[in-house]
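[step 3/7] fold_predict: job queued, chain A
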Amino acid sequence: MSEKTVVVALGHRALGTTLPEQKLATRQAARAIADLAEEGARVVISHSNGPQVGMIHTAMNEFGKAHPGYTFAPMSVCSAMSQGYIGYDLQNAIRAELISRGIYKPVATVLTQVVIDPYDDAFAEPEKIIGRVLSAEEAEAEEDKGNFVTEVAPGEYRRIVASPKPQKIVELETVRTLTEAGQIVIAAGGGGIPVMEQGIDLHGASAIIEKDFASGLLAEELNADTLLILTSVEKVSLDRGTDHEKYLGVISAEDARRYISENQFAKGSMLPKIEAGLSFIEKGTGRKTVITDIAHAKDGYREKTGTIIK
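[step 4/7] structure written:
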């Protein structure tokens, strides 16, 4: 039994898009998590929330339009809601899977806030599209309120928010304590609830933190042994989509940096995974990052497949 700590970053494919899809998808995710528990690993889980937080944001703001007496829900509140209901499905699915295997281990979701820098350059160039489609008049009204919008189709607009880098995980010691007590912990969902420090207070920010960077920071701060990033492919590839596509197995930090400089990885997709994995292994010793799909999670953890940075 390894008694090692692994932080598992679940991509949106592990959660589905709709409520029924999520219910089914979390069962597959639960099998992968239970496999790691059987390996003897201490498991901490982070997850995407892209479709979910967008759905919540749209629903809450449509409700606000229909009921003028209610305020619109800020992004930080929508992020908190997504952590709650994704954690709910994951907790139940993992618990059931563990019990079916005779493993009696508590599972807990920690509502997690992540501190960001209000002067992060990302606020000057927002890139995360959120919410419903807006008319030209509605888009102008959003800009009058200081929000950013982008035209997604002729005459159709949507809001965009910044994606700043995570600086600190507020509930880190809670996660650490639960993990060391033998619990499986779900934390920093959707990259965490973005907050800014103002004295002793934390104020929600209109932003979305990249899930992979938050997962990497969580792994760094917990001094984990493995960062396991589960995405849509078994292995990362170079020259993707070409006749000479090449799949990557074990690579070094130097290899990863070279491929980044060659623009081999798509921004907002594979690039943050490589960058987060690279940062994680370089800030400690004996660490590894594994990038693979959920079907190969156990084999990836055992270094039998996947792209491994070490």
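[step 5/7] annotate
The mean pLDDT is 92.
DSSP finds nine helices and 17 strands in the chain.
exit 0
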